[in-house]
Design a protein that fits this description.
- It holds the Pfam family Pro_dh.
- One of its GO terms (molecular function) is FAD binding.
- Its EC number is 1.5.5.2.
- The chain has 613 residues and is α/β, with parallel strands linked by helices.
- Helix 5 packs across helix 25, helix 14 crosses helix 19 and helix 22 packs parallel to helix 23.
- The chain has an 8-stranded parallel beta barrel, surrounded by 8 helices. The chain has a two-stranded antiparallel ribbon with strand order 3-4.
- The protein starts with 13 loop residues before the first helix and ends in a 9-residue tail after the last helix.
- It has a domain of 325 residues: TIM Barrel, CATH 3.20.20.220.
Length: 613
């Protein structure tokens, strides 16, 4: 017999926390659900007949033969150089052409660090910094601090483009130093003392050959743990970034990375716990013969589940209560609750719950708690300053924990409006399940789903790690399948917005076809840019021919705006050059438009054109 004791502060029942995603379907299949969707659809579209084709999850459907809707359709021309570059003077256009051309030379990109080091020695630091500001730094970075970036932010805003502020300073350390830092910060004291006694999975353990997480990463800045004091400094930097965004722009964003806020050991361990629980649900689904379907189509029979689950847990007593509260945000940041008690996983063979590790030191307990408390501080500052917080995605061995903790913040802070945005990497095989599950949870609990959709920045690193360590490659097999996944996730969220107006999405892409697909779907679904439900995002210094025409047409569009001192942003710039090598070899259109605009200005006597705002 199972004896359950009451635990103070419990906010959700066991099934609500762990089984809610699999106890019902996302589809509007029942009569009551369908009627409710029809009423909501009619309300948000101003009445009219419900179209059954316009259910969430049915991409490419929902076109209405409605003259009023057709009249409201907005099209954007991405081939007009004058409109694309009206925010730039001619020197800025010339700089773009030079930088993009240099980025296309393999030798310069491969040896960029050595060349920059040589440039510092020859020119001296001051002259080298000035050269960088005239070229690469000036192209891709807004300025050295929150005061220096304001002119660029205000200029972009005047031409319809907002900002996602991103403090892009990184430590410039050797590969050996990076590997050692990662090994020290991802292995607990218990693991060091009892090698082989803890049943950790190899994917969620640190491996020295992949300890330098900067390797094979394009565009994403990397934080390596050194101390709790350094994490506090990162938090203070993010707070300054949030305040700068609130003070410099309207409805701005600020980007953060969770690995900057604490020891990554906790993210590895919590990710492993979440993945093992997900496998346990798959095991239960297999027992009921419903495995192999999409996550939201899996419906476990509750009566069978209760019998099997209580038999499974009959020897556990009070530890059940600890797990019930595992994902309650208030408990996670409460100093009185031990984090190690939450890191328990089901052992199917033994039929019991067991701790992920045998023990944690008191300092490790405090470190795990501090990471979550720092996140909470940042969320509160974002609310106070009217800024939306964009939590960047990271490697797959960290991402389950990052996504889950971000979702828990959304539950708290996204009640009235979208404040916390999660990032979904669509090159992952599980991207669609992740998006649909989180959308469903937001609908049931009544908070604003808010997402940034990206293709992903860690593909080469992820593939190599999976191959070397021998676990399943988490990445889609090719670029075309990633495109399909991106559009599938995007269509699902757009349908959700059309039905309930309670979701928000940033389409973060440089792919013109994806942008055109989004505009087409918005027209089909009657989603207006003035509703501020669908945003677009590109990196500063890239794809202006997409960003600025969108902004001038009234669509909410944002540039990811890196900033920081020249010398400390060089690691970021080095990887930006590497990313642009591949990008610019295939970005013939952007260079053609830049040349076209320069020639037009020369022919019309506007070579000295100055943007007016």
């Amino acid at each position: 017999m199972l004896h359950v004791q009451t635990v103070p502060g419990l906010t959700r029942a066991w099934t609500e926390i762990l089984f809610k995603p699999v106890l019902s379907s996302r589809r509007l299949g029942s009569t009551s659900s369908a009627n409710q969707a029809e009423q909501q659809d009619g309300a948000c579209r101003g009445g009219g007949q419900h179209d059954p084709a316009r259910r969430p999850g049915r991409p490419g459907r929902g076109v209405r033969d409605d003259p009023a809707t057709a009249a409201n359709e907005i099209s954007v021309d991405f081939d007009q150089s004058r409109e694309a570059y009206k925010s730039k003077d001619s020197l800025e256009l010339l700089r773009s052409l030079v930088v993009f051309k240099l980025c296309s030379y393999d030798f310069l990109v491969d040896k960029n660090k050595e060349i920059m080091d040589l440039g510092k020695k020859i020119l001296g630091q001051k002259a080298f910094d000035q050269l960088m500001k005239m070229t690469f730094y000036g192209q891709f970075v807004a300025g050295e601090d929150h005061r220096a970036i304001r002119p660029l932010i205000h200029k972009n805003e005047a031409f319809g483009v907002g900002s996602v502020l991103d403090y892009s300073v990184e430590e410039d350390i050797s590969q050996e130093e990076a590997e050692q830092k990662e090994m020290d910060s991802c292995v607990s004291a218990a693991e060091k003392e009892s090698i082989g006694e803890n049943h950790r999975e190899k994917k969620y353990k640190v491996h020295k050959q992949f300890g330098d997480r900067r390797g094979g990463v394009t565009g994403a800045r990397t934080y390596l743990y050194s101390s709790e004091a350094k994490c506090d400094q990162h938090m203070e930097t993010f707070i300054k970034c949030i305040k700068a965004s609130g003070g410099s722009s309207v409805d701005g964003f600020s980007a953060i990375k969770m690995t900057a806020l604490g020891r990554p050991q906790f993210l590895l361990q919590f990710s492993e716990v979440l993945v093992k629980w997900r496998r346990f649900f798959t095991f239960l689904a297999l027992q009921q013969g419903i495995d192999g379907t999409e996550a939201l189509k899996q419906r476990l029979e509750l009566k069978q589940l209760q019998v099997k689950f209580f038999l499974f847990c009959s020897t556990l007593g009070i530890r059940i209560q600890i797990t019930i509260d595992m994902l309650d945000w208030n408990s996670l940041i409460d100093d009185r609750i031990k984090m190690s008690d939450l890191l328990v996983v089901p052992n199917i063979e033994l039929g019991e719950l067991e701790p992920l590790l045998k023990k944690f030191t008191m300092e490790e307990e405090k470190q795990m708690k501090r990471m979550l408390q720092r996140m909470d501080v940042l969320a509160k500052h974002a609310m106070e300053n009217g800024v939306r917080l964009m939590v960047d995605a990271e490697q797959t061995y960290f991402q389950p924990a990052i996504s889950r903790l971000t979702l828990e913040m959304q539950r708290i802070y996204n009640r009235k409006k979208p404040v916390i945005f999660n990032t979904y990497q669509c090159y992952l095989k599980e991207a669609y399940d992740n998006v649909t599950m989180d959308v469903e949870l937001s609908r049931r609990e009544g908070w604003h789903f808010a997402a940034k959709l990206v293709r992903g920045a860690y593909m080469h690193q992820e593939r190599e790690r999976a191959k070397e360590i021998s676990y399943e490659d988490p990445i889609n097999p090719d670029y075309e399948s990633t495109n399909r996944m991106y559009h599938r996730c995007l269509d699902y969220v757009l349908d959700e917005i059309a039905l309930h107006r309670n979701a928000n999405v940033m389409v973060a892409t440089h792919n013109e076809d994806t942008v055109k697909h989004t505009l087409s779907r918005m027209n089909e679904l009657g989603l207006l840019p003035t509703e501020n439900k669908v945003y677009f995002g590109q990196l500063l210094g890239m794809c202006d021919q997409i960003s600025f025409p969108l902004g001038q047409a009234g669509f909410p569009v944002y540039k990811y705006v890196p900033y920081g001192p020249v010398n400390e942003v060089m690691p970021y710039l080095s990887r930006r050059a590497q990313e642009n090598r591949g990008f610019m070899k295939g970005a013939q259109k952007e260079r053609e438009l830049l040349w076209k605009e320069l020639k037009r200005r020369l022919a019309s006597g506007e070579l000295l054109y100055t943007p007016m705002y």
